[in-house]
Each structure stands twice: as structure tokens, then as C-alpha cells.
Amino acid sequence: MAAPVSVQVEFGGGAELLFDGVKKHQVTLPGQEEPWDIRNLLIWIKKNLLKERPELFIQGDSVRPGILVLINDADWELQGELDYQLQDQDSILFISTLHGG
Amino acid sequence: MAASEDVLALQAEVALLEEELRLLRQRLEEATAKPFSRHAREPAPLPPKAALSREEILRYSRQLVLPELGVRGQLRLATSSVLVVGCGGLGCPLAQYLAAAGVGRLGLVDHDVVELSNLHRQVLHGEAREGHAKAHSAAAAIGRLNSAVQCVPYAEALTPATALDLVRRYDVVADCSDNVPTRYLVSDACVLAGRPLVSASALRLEGQLTVYHYEGGPCYRCVFPTPPPGESVTNCADGGVLGVVPGVLGCLQALEVIKIAAGLGPSYSGSLLLFDALGGQFRCIRLRGRRSDCVACGDQPTVTRLQDYEAFCGSSATDKCRSLQLLSQEERVSAAHYKQVLDAGEPHLLLDVRPKVEVDICCLPHALHIPLSRLERRDAESLRLLGDAVRKGKQTIQKGTLFPIYVICKLGNDSQKAVKVLQSLSIKELDSLLARDIVGGLMAWATKVDPTFPQY
Q1: How many CA atoms are closer than 13 Å to the CA of A63, on its beta-carbon side?
Q2: Residue A64 domain-assigned?
Q3: What is the C-alpha separation between B235 and B450, in angstroms, rounded?
Q4: pTM of the full predicted structure?
Q5: How many interchain CB pairs under 8 A, A with B?
Q6: In chain B, at which end, N or C, are there fewer CB atoms within 10 A of the end residue's CB?
Q7: Among B223, B235, B284, whose Cβ lies nearest the Cβ of A100?
Q8: CATH at residue A89
Q9: What digits encode the pLDDT tens for the residues A42-96?
């Protein structure tokens, strides 16, 4: 049994608009059998935080193309992507890329 | 005393006439400018430069005394050429600072013309340039700032047919564009031509900046292998942008270009700068490195020539608003038709589904306002308001006939989505409705029916 994990979930670049415009969310993920990873976190976010148009955030079991995921300010690709296991006090940032100029 | 006033008046008149002459010359140039082609206007490579002139020393003295730049860096700047893709909110401040710093040559690409709604952020263009090509307007402004900088305006879109040729002629490329297909096109062209790419973007109150394909760093495709779905991309017209935000990003972009051109090296290769203007925060994040399996810059690239980027991205290479077609012809009316409904005093309800911030800008006073987002989430309070209005309206028509609702938004996209929502509702008050939307929305109302109605 993994203990509850407290993480900061942030949205930016317009992704926050799918979350009532709220950029920073301090969340506590309940204890569960499996350790929390990004894959589980996405499911949890979809169920608990996402307010509208889930297809603009999630595609399949991952984020949609054009959203960068950053774990403690580093590209998630450097850290195992969906399989990264969340540590207490991690900061997870979802940034929608901008194209305007 | 009288004599000196005469001199001042004459000087002012001369300045005025000179400005007029310059404008005439520019219009002539614009009128005779030929579309960019392989053979047109190929400026010779910039010659090496051994020393600064007395005038150059004075002009650049405040940056020459920086040991990091010095004469060596200034000479490198003077022999560098930079291709600026997009002369808008990013490209204007970028080109301005590059010219002021003494970059040798600027290629200015933009297919668009100056519009009044550009001026709050595209600071090289003035009121007098409305309707003129942005590439020429920017070149004229740069010419006034630093006549030693060679400006090559390309008043057309960068296309897969022209991009590679063009990029090869410049040392550094700045992506100041406003759409997804162009961003992939510029990146691939830079990879194929072996040029570093300084890329920035801005929207609403946020900006992003990074350097691609610099000395083994990642390219755009390494970071974004798959383009985003079209409906997830917001342009400046829909999302809004505070003018100074692209201004800040364009300046930072110019800084990176200057550092690359002068040989100091960039700071944001392999990392991404995020600017949050509302929170007043700059944040730098570490990006992945070059992907060995990248289709453009990987070990075995499959993108060996430029392709059709509009097809690849499923969107067009402009930042113009898209026109959706969700409803049938019978479910839509023109702005002129709605004017007739109003004039005839036919009972109906006008439902304006724009966000409140846009209703505050302008509205038709008799409309009921319920933002699309609330309809989409079936907000109870909004449905109650709508139900009340419909019930009241139904009292004015014969029993058994359908009650007409006309849905309006800014351009006629959201109004179609709202009609779809209304059709899907199964609420007692909201049955026996005939919901239709107004094609082209309030902007069509402004152009076709009421020219005094504001456009935004």
C-alpha cells in the first residue's frame, strides 16, 4: 500500500482554460495499492480536475500532441514519461504550446 | 529672431516633403515588387569586414565597450544575415533591435497587410501603413532607424517551394510566425539548410521562447513530433494578446539571435523559457535533447525535402479564423435575414453566446447572453434563464407553432455549436423550438447591416 502523495499540478499556455482558468492546483492523491505514476495521475486529473472538453487535454492514455509535460521543470521524456513514479512534493506542469506571434 | 523662425519653418517643410517623397518611393516600390521567385532579388553574400568606420564606432559605442561583444562581436554582427519569418507582434520588435544593433542584413517575410487591430503590438507599422504589405512597412521603418542595414522584404508567404532557398541565404532564422504549419516548415527548412532557429510565440498573457537546431540541440520536431489537433490551436484574434507580451518575447528572441550572430552562443538551446505576464514570472525548463529517431534531424531522417505542411497539420498556414460548417443551410440565416425578422417585429429570442468580456465590448441590446461554455456544460442557472425567456416568448405566438431562437456570436462558429446544444436539450420549456444561427455573427451584422456597429 503506497502512502498518499501530495503534488503540485500546474497548467499553462492556455491548458488552464480547461480547468476553470485555475493554473495552480495543490492536490493530495489518496493512498492506493500501486504507486502513483503519471499515467494514473492523468486519469485522476480527468476525473477530478478537468472541467470541459477532455479531448483537448487527453488523447488515448496520454496527453494530446502539443502539450508538454514537465516534471520538476524538466521535460518528462527525460524521466520516463507515463511511467514516472510521483514523489511527494513533485511539481507537474502541463504546458500547451503557443503558436501566435 | 525672425530669421531663425524662418529657418525652423523651412526645415520643417523640407522634412515634411522628404517624408512624402519617401512614402511615394515606397508605394512605387510596392507597386512594382515582383513575387518572390528563385531568381528574383538574390542579394550577394555579405563581404567580410575588417574594421569599423569612425561613424560605426560612435553609433555602436555603448555596446562596443562591452567586453563580451567588443569590436570582434560587432564585426560579426555586421556580416550576419537574419531571416525574420513574420513581421507581426514578435517580428517587429525583433527586427527593430537587430537593426539597431547593426546586423548586416535582414530578410523580412510576411504575406499579410497591416490592419488597424495589429497596431497595439506590431510596433513598426503606423496608422499610415494600414492596407500596406507588412514586409514593406517593416522595411521602411527599419530603413529610417538604421540605413546601413540591408533590408530585403518578401511580401509573401513562406511556402515549401520557396523556404529552403530562402533560408540557405541567411545565417540565422527567427520564427516569428503565427501558425502551426509555418512553424514545422521553418524548422524543417532550418534542419535541411543547417541553420539555427530562434523561435518565439505569444498569446493572451503568456509567451514561450527556445532555440532549435543549434549545435546538436533538438529541432522543433524532436520536441513536437506530432502536430496538435486544429481545434486546440488558438489565434490572437480569438484568444487575444496583450501587445507588450509579444514585445517582450520578440526582444528576448532578438537577444538570442544577436548572441548567436556575434558568436556568444545562445542561452535557450535545449531549454524553453516560459513567460507569464500576469504572474510576472519567467521560468526556464529543460527540454529533451535531439532525438536520434527524429524524422527531420535524426540519424536516419525521412524528411529529406520540404512537404505539404498544411496537410500534415490539418490546418491552414495563416492565423485567420476558421469557418466551421456544423449546421445545414436550413438551420442558418444571414444577418440581412435577421434584420428583416427584427423590422417585421416577428416574435423570437436572440441568444448571444459570446463570453462576457466580448459582450462588454459591444452587443445587440435585446439579446439574452449565455456564454457557449455554460450551455455546453448544461449550467443549471443558465438553462433556467433560457427557459424563462422562451416561456415568455411562447406566450406571444400561436399554440402549436415552433418558437424561433436566433443564436449569434462573433463570427458564426460558436453559434452553430450552441444550436447543436439547444437541439440536444430535453427540457420541457425548451421543446417546440426552432433554433437557427446567424451566419458570420455580429461581424457580418457590422459589415452587412449596421456599419456603425463596432468590429473587433
Answers
A1: 28
A2: yes
A3: 26
A4: 0.88
A5: 107
A6: N
A7: B235
A8: 3.10.20.30
A9: 999 999 999 888 999 999 999 999 999 999 999 999 899 999 999 999 999 999 9
**Which residues 367-406 in chain B show a CB within 8 A of chain A?**
373, 376-377
CA B318, distance to chain mean position in Å, is 8
- The CATH number that domain B80-313 falls under is 3.40.50.720
The residues that bridge with A94 in the sheet, in sequence order, are: A11, A69
Q: Grid coordinates in use for B191?
A: 534542419
Q: Which residues pair with A46 in a beta bridge?
A: none
Domains B80-313 and B329-449 share a fold: no
Q: What is the pLDDT of residue B32?
A: 64
| A3 touches B at CB < 8 Å | no
Q: Where are the domains of chain B?
A: 80-313, 329-449
State residue B350 phi and psi, 5-degree precision.
-100, 120
Number of domains within chain A = 1
Q: Which of B225, B229, B284 sits opposite A64 (nearest CB)?
A: B229
Rounded (10°) angle between helices B91-101 and B244-261: 40
DSSP 3-state of B211: strand
A-chain CB neighbours of B227 within 8 Å are 65-66
- Quote the domain boundaries for residue A12: 5-96
What superfamily does domain B329-449 belong to in CATH? Rhodanese-like domain (3.40.250.10)
